[in-house]
Design a protein that fits this description.
With 375 residues, this protein is an alpha+beta fold. It contains 14 helices and 8 strands. The strands form 2 sheets. It has a 5-stranded mixed beta sheet. Bound molecules: iron/sulfur cluster. The site of iron/sulfur cluster (SF4) has 13 residues, from helix 2 and helix 9.
Amino acid sequence: MDLVLPRPLSHSSISMYSECPQKYKFRYVDKIPEKPKHFFSFGQSVHSALEYFYGVKTLPPPSLKELLAHFKEHWVRGGYRDEAQEAEYFQDGKHILTKFYDKHIQDYAIPFFVEYEFKLKVEGVPVIGYVDRIDKLPDGRLAVLDYKTGKSLSSARVETDAQLTMYQMACEELLGAEVARLTFYHVPTLKEQVVERHPKKLVEGLRAKIVTTAESIVKGAFEPKPDEKVCRWCDYKPICPVYRDSYQTPETDPDELAGLIDRYGELQERLAEAAEEAGQLKADILASLVKKGFVRAFGKKFQVSRAAAEKWEFADKKKVLELIKKAGLYEKVLAPSAPKVEQLMSDPALPADLRARLGELGVRVETPDLKVKPL
Ligand code: SF4
């Protein structure tokens, strides 16, 4: 008998249920979306470009220019910390796709399937998924390939990974051909981890897991499974029953703390607005002083005088980033913005040779500044 689920099971929803049934409930029963994550957005953007690359019906394949244009047009924006981080990932994506293109334009062949959507039932349990690419081998068997854009996976994982087992099961059931091999393709490093088809016992284990997961969901078994390593990244933590006592909201505790928090937030917003206005006024005053040739000028309560500030500028940000990453200090800057790199260079703990090499990549630029003091 078919089980009625909030939605068909997929590899990711089964994983989420195993990780924490309460999290599954928030996501798939209560339908509370998770926040966008930059690594998912980046993965989607690269997957979409590869789907375009291999998705042609007839030869020739898209050119590199067309591939990169598609990447740009279908870039998924959500989840990036700021524009600098997004720009850095976008450049990384172009670089990765160019390397991929250069390697695979040599062995290009139209795949058997690209982004193959499967729907099947396992003992009455509906299951869905998408396979990134399926190639047909000369002997008629299939090669299943899944692209990865995050961290590369260990070879042990590829041998037993449940996602690949699910793809094997679905392809064999729906396409009527045996799967010969399974591949995780780590796109950033062009590394392919290939294994023979998964053994029957893994397929049977997966089928049993699909059924037990579905039965638990239908029974309403959504006990939280707290684990600090998982909970710290969980978007549902503020509403999770496990952490109810750790979070105060206006509804649960409408005391004066809520008022203080709102007041503090408003002040921070006003500070940001004031800083923006002050920056514009400073630029206008400086422009006026330069135009009139004055070094000092007076208001009724304050006086200003022209000064000069020095700052670093880096023409080749990629090289700066490479150097910082190589020194294991990427976490300190996260993006090669000049102020962040300057802050890093002024850190007394920075090795002198690294400071010197960073200095070789930049120039000190003098910028006009304004000093202000009361009369
Ligand atoms: S915070 Fe932890 S226990 Fe709560 S839903 Fe998320 S993963 Fe589960």
